[in-house]
Design a protein that fits this description.
heterotrimer; A mainly alpha (222); B alpha+beta (186); C mainly alpha (211); B: 186 residues; 6 helices; elongated; nucleus (chain B); GINS_A (chain B)
Chain lengths: 222, 186, 211
Amino acid sequence: MSDALSDGGSDHDDSQEDVMTPVELIAKLEEAWLNEKFSPDLLENKSEIVECVMEQLTHMEANLQRVSKGDTKASVHRMEIDRIRFVLSSYLRSRLQKIEKFFPHVLEKEKSRADGDPSYLSPEEYAFAREYLANTETYLKAVALRHMPPNLQSVNMMKAVPEPCLDSFVFLRVKERQDNIMVEPETDDQREYVVDLEEGSQHLMRYRTIAPLVSTGAVQLI
Amino acid sequence: MDPSEVEFLAEKEVVKIIPNFSLDKIYLIGGDLGPFNPGLPVDVPVWLALNLKQRQKCRILPPEWMDVDKLEDVREMERKEESFTPPPSPYYMELTKLLLNHASDNIPKADEIRTLVKDIWDTRIAKLRLSADSFISQQEAHAKLDNLTLMEINTTRSFLLDSLNCMFKLRSNMQPGSGTGKALDY
Amino acid sequence: MDSQSYLPVPPGVGMEENFLSLDDILLSHERLPSRTECLFPRLGYLEKTSDSQDIMEGTKMELPLWLAKGLYERKRRVVSVELPKVYREGWRTVFSADPTVVDLHKMGPYYYGLGSQMLHFDSPENPEIAQALLQTFIGRFRRTMDSSQNAYNEDTSALVDRLDCLERVLFRMGQSGLNSFQGWEKGRASHLTTSALVLNYRKRKMADLQA
């Protein structure tokens, strides 16, 4: 058995100031994956997690290069790598899907972001969104708009593409207890009321109510 | 979400296996496993247990709840109670399918277990439909769903959430002026 | 996997319309009984029933929703739009008695969509119409849900027949939830299939070669 595998990934973070262990890192990735899958809106990007996971994978794959194919340990490592890769690509893909669905709004949000605020998009996603907008415009122009009278040759993308609906309901599990969450009434004869979200409990409610708790990690969408 | 993705999450659950080989600790990115010694039970995630089983390198010990007597009690409770009782495991459906399909020779009374779990599932899904209907007809804004499992939520997720969205939009019709601002004129 | 190579734009529900949604484009072509409230000079050729050069004030005609919406103005009456029967009081009473007996496809097929769009035209009955749409939806929900959950691998046309377009979308959503679960249960999910995109790409490539 090669020693290359025995030191694993756990000592590998020492060089970074980041105190997250690989175990926590993978948990964070899975959390981000499910939140992104179930949230009606595009969440802030987690480039740091993505990069760290990629680093872990590359490191592990490099180690595996030195081990013979039939090695049992190596095959277990390969299976784990495949599983992590699956989560990673599914996560990135669900972000791309949302960017395609909401591209004008995503770009608008990025434009109106204050200087210090973190970007919602990774540099790659930003490039993708801009290209997607440009391609859509070129396409619409080529197939239809150029045949229209001059005053009708433009489409307002912000109006043409629906916005994310923050009033969508979501399922969630509470990770850190939250008191006094305001639930807005659905009908005129109901009143607003507050609920306490106990740790470990599960709820069905509007995304808008708990969106801030998703980004702080206090609740997990399920 | 696709059911196979829920199954993927279930595969992270830990089961006990009895290996027939020896191997030192494995330092995976997601945590350490082993060491493995022939005949000594050891905890591993289901994905690894199934792989080792397929390669005839281990015997899987069924989880404690996967037992005819226990499941009969659960079924009894589930039928008696109006609300959802705590599930035998948050992934009871997925684990039953995985373990019975790939390791039924390690699980006593596999067929009975399959039927029991299916009964429990059906009872719970019927309750889920009842509560979905009352959530809609009462126009509730919040529901607590403590004992529902991910697979149960997942079978009705898109239908229920989309219905709620439709209802929300139809209701906002009634507040004059709320929709008109967004109305597009082309 | 439920991922598709292209995501169709869903119809807007309620008073919103999605510009790029095929359903909403079809909805915007629904015809509404209307009446002109002023003279439309030199447009008589659009109105085949008279030989007049103009469309006279008070002419009754059917206008598609998009045109009626475009011409309608609150301040200056150019056209007035008549409420389709199904949203009038008589039918509203029928719906409130038992919404499940109505064939909304025959009455619609865009019962909720068109109903919501009608709210753009100022009518004293608007609050009642909006209320009727919501109550009808709620009243029919159980049926939509139950039929969508009991229809695995069956001929569903009889179940779908009486549903409005919006309900059909939900019905299919419920079905696909059920189908994917039952497919998974039977172990069908473990077989990988080629994505439609790749398949079409291959076909196109073959066609290119043969050309």
